[in-house]
UniProtKB/TrEMBL annotation:
Protein name as annotated: Cyclohexadienyl dehydratase
UniProt keyword annotation of Signal present: yes
PANTHER family, sorted: AMINO-ACID-BINDING PROTEIN YXEM-RELATED (PTHR35936:SF19), MEMBRANE-BOUND LYTIC MUREIN TRANSGLYCOSYLASE F (PTHR35936)
Organism: Scopulibacillus darangshiensis
Record's keyword terms, sorted: Signal
């Protein structure tokens, strides 16, 4: 009887020591929250859970991978956190964030419940070239960076301006189109607005959508004119045409698009834009394999004249 008890005790001790050894060998990360025997870390806006021991968190590497939107594999005794590219290929889906409010790049049609536009076609082509399905995820200009950080999508596409500010928090692909900020006005005002100072007058009202580079430009450069913030970007060109606001300062590409479709509108100064900028696709930081693939894809699209075809279809 005593012998059996001693054997059981030794077995229990043995299992306990093994468990502690396995626990201790889990990869580490600093905990910011949690206590007792659970811990949580935040990685790129996602949380991963594990155990805490003496102020150190032990987070299973699978959890880390999940939080980063990446797969984890084990080879030659080493854990490998794979690129997002491998995960996309394995899952057979790429999640593309897009705002759906910026013609001609991205437009969500509430009736057909589908997206269309230059970058929607580009995203579909991207899916085809990757050999995966495309799942569009709605985002917005004010929440774009947060939605990316929270891993709501793998890449954002839809007339996004490359900017040094955004590159501090995310990563842009190589550019695929050049443009600049310019005014969309009523045709009858063609001779009235010939420069930014003609526009920045107390009797002028500028319509602007929140959260993007249009608003940033207006905040930085407009001192005297009235500014009306319009939640739905798609409403602004019509508001200009109907005289509800006088000017929309936006990307020259968009100004041209609306002016060529509505005879009441005029795209001014598109050859002398207020700024010079480029569009790019927005990705997470720290994943060179995925970023390189996307850059090569952008280069191939240019080389094969695919962006030219999209321009002919959507921008002319
Ligand atoms: O923020 C950006 O990157 C954009 O280029 C998007 C942006 C904007 O500047 O607000 C550009 C033009 C459209 O009218 C709406 C959105």
């Amino acid at each position: 009887m005593l012998k059996r008890r001693i054997v059981t005790l030794i077995t229990v001790l043995f299992i306990l020591c093994g468990g502690l050894w396995a626990w201790g060998s889990l990869p580490q990360a600093k905990a910011f929250k949690g206590g007792g025997d659970t811990a949580t870390v935040e990685l790129d806006g996602q949380t991963a859970g594990g155990l805490e021991k003496n102020g150190t968190a032990y987070i299973p590497v699978d959890e880390v991978g999940k939080a980063l939107g990446r797969n984890v594999s084990k080879k030659d005794g080493k854990y490998l956190i794979q690129s997002r590219l491998d995960r996309i290929l394995k899952k057979g889906v790429i999640r593309v964030g897009t705002t759906g409010d910026y013609r001609p790049f991205t437009y969500y049609d509430p009736e057909s419940k589908t997206y269309e536009g230059y970058d929607i076609d580009a995203a579909k082509r991207l899916g085809k070239d990757l050999g995966v399905k495309v799942e569009f995820v709605k985002t917005s200009w004010p929440t774009l960076m947060e939605d990316l950080r929270h891993n709501k999508f793998d890449i954002a596409m839809g007339g996004i301006s490359r900017s040094l500010d955004r590159e501090k928090k995310a990563h842009f692909s190589k550019p695929y189109i050049d443009f600049g900020k310019s005014p969309l006005i009523r045709k009858e005002d063609k001779d009235k607005y010939k420069s930014l100072s003609d526009i920045d007058q107390p009797d002028v009202t500028i319509g602007v959508n929140p959260g993007g580079t249009n608003e940033k430009f207006v905040k930085e450069h407009i001192k005297q004119a009235k500014v009306k913030v319009v939640q739905d970007n798609l409403d602004i060109p019509k508001m200009v045409a109907e005289g509800k606001v006088d000017v929309m300062i936006t990307d020259s590409v968009e100004a041209r698009y609306y002016a060529s479709r509505d005879p009441r509108l005029y795209a001014a100064l598109t050859d002398h834009t207020f700024t010079k900028s480029q569009k790019g696709y927005l990705m997470h930081r720290g994943d060179p394999d995925f970023q390189n693939w996307i850059d090569l894809w952008v280069a191939e699209m240019k080389l094969q004249g695919e962006f030219d075809k999209l321009e002919a279809k959507w921008l002319e």
